[in-house]
Specification:
By secondary structure, the chain is α/β, with parallel strands linked by helices. 43% of the residues lie in helices and 16% in strands. The strands form 2 sheets. It has an 8-stranded mixed sheet, with helices on both faces. The longest helix has 19 residues.
């Protein structure tokens, strides 16, 4: 079986979409598929091409874990500003479409968001007369209204019309949460072609380990309870709330926060930290995926946060699984389906998003040794049930059927 996969995020980028796609494609190759990935040159989240890469029109790399990787030109900009980012997305859609015309395949998979990648998949389906599968990792364009990037207008309504055309033309739709499936059914999408393949973790890469002594020493974390967020610093993640909470907790000298990653809000957050003179927060830039585990190891508590919105009750943040696999209890400001997972496995505690009193209360409870140890055990059970190898094989069966 020949699979053509379109995605604008792929290793060496280390965000959740890149990891999911790479892990799935590796397993499909092991299962006997010929997988070609069309992607852009790595630049997320800084909007700068990584060292060793050039933003060329077309380049086929050496095989990556058995995956044929084709990188195409895009209009690369930092992950800020709606208009420029949209031009970036459109440029990838066009480049991916033209590159895809020359790839022999039995099926096309396009992952959304960003949404224009799905449009490229749909158009290739029409030109090549091959079935296509739409993977939906976020309900776009609804999500851009939720974070305030754009209000409801003519453009949004046009994108929503195109979104429904994609759902109707796709042979199958793979979503990452049960809530997404329910929402699509409510909008009239055929239930029979919607499948749920949730996010998970590569347990060969993330496993329990002792705190990395070099990082502890480098960041002066000796004797501290370390609460850390590792991931994108975007509008959806409401990390200004976390900075305010940390500022109000600065008299507790045994507590330290780490915010690691990049994104559209990173510069604003750095300015806010400086203005508030928050000295119990260390802000770090992203590191390669092979290094992420070392930084997770120094955490005592994994912090996951999203702004308060009905839309975010439908999401399951992928960082749940990597931290759970390393037995790091989770403190999460997300309601809905993700909360059900954390509480069902007793892998941590959830606080009401943007509620500082509830945040502090749940943080204090999670620091109690007996409860903390119970959460560590719950984390490992959660990771076992969300092993990405099994989930990749599940999606492969969907593609073949």
């Amino acid at each position: 079986m020949k699979i053509l996969f379109l995605t604008d995020n792929f290793p060496p980028e280390v965000n959740a979409p890149a990891s999911r796609t790479f892990d799935h494609c590796k397993e499909w190759v092991k299962a006997g598929a010929e997988v070609t990935v069309i992607t852009c040159n790595p630049n997320f989240p800084q909007g700068k091409v990584y060292e060793g890469y050039k933003n060329k029109w077309f380049k086929q790399e050496e095989m990556m874990e058995g995956i044929r990787v084709i990188r195409v030109w895009t209009y690369i900009v930092p992950n800020v500003g709606f208009l420029k980012r949209t031009l970036d997305f459109i440029s990838f859609s066009l480049s991916a479409f033209f590159a895809g015309l020359f790839v022999k395949t039995d099926i096309i998979v396009a992952t959304s968001p960003q949404f224009f990648t799905a449009l490229a998949g749909r158009t290739l389906h029409w030109w090549k007369r091959k079935p296509w599968v739409m993977e939906v990792r976020d309900l776009w364009p609804e999500s851009i209204k939720t974070v305030g990037a754009m209000k409801d207008n003519l453009f949004i309504r046009y994108f929503e019309w195109e979104e429904m055309r994609c759902y109707r033309s796709a042979k199958k739709i793979v979503v990452v949460t049960d809530s997404f499936k329910r929402k699509l059914i409510e909008r009239g999408v055929d239930e029979q072609k919607i499948f749920v393949v949730k996010n998970g973790v590569d347990k060969s890469l993330f496993k329990p380990m002792k705190k990395d002594a070099d990082i502890v020493k480098q960041l002066h974390l000796e004797g501290k309870t370390v609460v850390g967020y590792i991931g994108t610093h975007g509008m959806a993640h409401k990390l200004d709330f976390i900075l305010n909470c940390a500022n109000d907790l600065k008299n507790d000298k045994s507590l330290h926060f780490i915010l690691m990653g990049g994104g559209a809000e990173k510069e604003n957050l750095l300015r806010m930290k400086e203005e508030l003179k928050v000295d119990n927060v260390t802000m770090l830039d992203p590191v390669p995926k092979t290094e992420v585990g070392r930084y997770i190891s120094v955490l005592d508590i994994c912090l996951i946060n999203l702004r308060k919105s009905p839309l975010f009750t439908t999401v399951i943040p992928s960082k749940i699984f990597e931290n759970a696999a390393m037995a790091i209890p989770i403190l999460m400001g997300v309601e809905g389906e993700a909360q059900q997972i954390i509480e069902g496995y007793e892998a941590g505690l959830c606080f009401e998003p943007e509620n500082e009193a509830d945040f502090v209360s749940k943080l204090n409870l999670l620091r109690k040794p007996e409860f903390y140890d119970k959460c560590k055990k719950g984390c490992l059970k959660l990771a076992d049930d969300f092993d990405r190898k099994n989930l990749a094989n599940e999606m492969f069966k969907i593609l073949k059927a």
